Amino acid sequence: MMHDKKLDQLKNQALDLMADAGFALTSTIDVALDPKLPYMGYTTEKDGKPLIVVSGDALKGNMALNLLIHELSHVYRIQSGHPSHNASLLTSIVTWVMHGRVVESYQESILFSILNNLQDIYADDISFKIFAKQTSQTNLNEFFMGWIHEPVKATTPEKKWQNAEKLLSAAFAQANLERHHITDTDQKVAKAINDLLPKYEKALAQNFAFFKEFMVDMPEEITDRDFEKLLTKYLSEFVKLTKI
Description:
By secondary structure, the chain is mainly alpha-helical. Helix content is 60%, strand content 7%. It folds into two domains: 75 residues, 2-Layer Sandwich (Zincin-like), CATH 3.30.2010.10; 159 residues, no CATH class. It contains eleven helices and three strands. A three-stranded mixed β-sheet has the order 1-3-2. Helix 1 crosses helix 3, helix 3 packs across helix 5 and helix 5 packs parallel to helix 7.
């Protein structure tokens, strides 16, 4: 990772846009460039401060500003105490849903992946308010096509978990468009999902609508207690999918 002057300028621009939209951040936030990162970027922590790592491709492709706004929206959710970004609350609910059973590493990874779907929804409640003022949303659905994946042949418990995760990933893509009133240009996402669902086992595909609507309808303002109830339902229904 390295320091990049252009990235610092984009961070300051993103922070100004956040503040103008009513989501000012008060803590110091660092940014770094990772030229070899295979995906757009992520947020972590270094020396007690948020650190946003941006890929070389995101910077070259002029996607870094939108990425920074999205990642800063996550930071805002953390700093404002939103339950969706309360790490200890999320961990305790996962532990309760799994009833203290030993969790395989792939299960743990998938559980936190589907939690990240919810966190992205709540971050985008902020970021899309800013995007709407800055850029055209034409063909923005192309971005969400990356969340739609073909199922694998479910011959093992691990592959069943993978398919359940893929189903929720597709539900996330469509839910994010609907929740944030983004046009599905040429119905590309809808068509992709209509083509995809018959490839899943019928009992699995029948649950797609539940998870999509769940993500569309999550209240933005929510107490820890109410979020705990919602998340317990979400995770419990997901675990049921892995047994189909």
